[in-house]
Design brief:
Elements: H1 9-12, E1 15-18, E2 29-33, H2 46-55, E3 65-69, H3 78-88, E4 94-97, H4 100-113, E5 124-128, H5 137-147, E6 153-158, E7 161-167
Parallel strand pairs: 1-5, 2-3, 3-4, 5-6
Antiparallel strand pairs: 6-7
Amino acid sequence: METELIVNRVAKSGLVSLDLEDYYHPGERVVYDLKDNLFMGLILKEKDFREFLKTHDWSQYAGKNVAVTCSEDAIVPTWAYMLLTIHLEPHAHTVVFGSLQDLEEKLYFDAIARINIEEYRDARVVVKGCSKVPVPTAAYVEITRRLRPVAQSLMFGEPCSTVPLYKRPKQG
């Protein structure tokens, strides 16, 4: 009886897999909505706001990722967001202005910025497409922007089923 040798063609292909899921920050995500600090839901009173900032328990944001926004259609001065950030920043892991989506993008951009892109120089890179955590499209755009100048080729998907995206032209 002859046994057939099973060859792992994916392993022999020289493809390097990059999974953005590996760069997901596990910390809690919360929204701080300035609408709760508005007088009659319309205006921000500086004196009242400054008093709130002094007395609020900021430790509840320890290690959290905070998106700062105002969901009311009110004119909120820029300095109010700045003051809020001054109080959040010593406690929170990250503070951004915007939505939870903006926060997620910032967390991924920070993680992608820490990747040693040189590790992918001249590599055939597959950016994995399926993940158990939500990966924003902006993160895929950012990793593509960072990898294209160094990678030999870029693909999307799984090593066994990829969508070709880029192949460096041959030097002639």
